[in-house]
Amino acid sequence: MPVVVQNIQRAELGIIDGLASLGVATVHEAQDRVGLLAPHMRPIYAGARIAGSAITISAPPGDNWMVHVAIEQLREGDILVLAPTSPCVDGYFGDLLATSAQARGCRGLVIDAGVRDVRDLTEMQFPVWSKAVFAQGTVKATMGSVNVPIVCAGALVRPGDIIVADDDGVCVVERECAAEVLEKARTREEAEAKKRRRLAAGELGLDIYGMRPKLEEMGLKYV
Fold first, then answer.
1. What was the pLDDT predicted at 179?
2. SS3 letters across 35-82
């Protein structure tokens, strides 16, 4: 049955913004290397780094009607996340929808399908991570659902979960775990900063990470 869930729980914006500042790689490592979307999800322009609460869309192939429905549900700090019900690369989303979404505080789009008008989207600084860039349009004829659990590019995304996206890809963080993941990610970032200073001073990863005994045990010989 097609449904729109109107009231979803969201994490605090402070937590969301903290995850955005740390980026996908650090967040992914901090939550035990889970939550990554498939590597075909690529940004339409470089340099964007965002996080936001997921407004999820389950849409039929080649039909973007539910995107219009979902935009009504947006709040400041949200990200649209669309998964088609069967594989599709049609351009569900362009500059007009982005204008409407941006006006409601949307931070970006993650779509396991196609997007178009990328030059306009880039000029608008509306970030998108997509499976394809394709000018093929869509129709508005078939029902889908908004704010239901979806599988997007191989990852489970529930409404209100946090999406983190940058040049390295896209990661999802369960809303209930977000504060804990943020704390772990900050700890990891501090540790990496210390290692970066040591590496810049000329120390080797072989010594910093204590690799030499294991390499010797595994039979590595220097000749």
1. 98
2. CECCCCCEECCCCCCEEEEEEEEEECCCECHHHHHHHCCCCCCEEEEE
pTM over 0.85: yes
User: Pseudo-torsion of CA 156, 157, 159, 161, nearest 10°?
Assistant: 120
Q: Label the pairing between strands 109-115 and 91-93.
A: parallel
Amino acid at 184: K
SS3 107: coil
Residues 61, 66, 67, 70, CA torsion sign:
negative
Q: Which of 121, 212, 127 is nearest to 169 (CA)?
A: 127
- Residue 6 burial class via C-beta count within 10 angstroms: exposed 0-12, middle 13-18, buried 19 and up: exposed
- pLDDT one-digit tens code per residue, 154-200: 999 999 999 999 999 999 999 999 999 999 999 999 999 999 999 99
114 and 132 Cβ atoms separated by less than 8 Å:
yes
Scanning the structure block, which residue is given the tokens 């997921």? Answer: 54
For the purposes of burial, counting CB atoms within 10 Å of the CB of 45, is it exposed (0-12), middle (13-18) or buried (19 or more)? middle
Distance between CA 102 and CA 128 in Å, rounded? Answer: 12
Which DSSP symbol is given to 188? H
Sequence letter at residue 124: M
Buried b (16+ CB within 10 A) or exposed e, 144-169: bbbbeebebbebebbbbbbbbbbebb
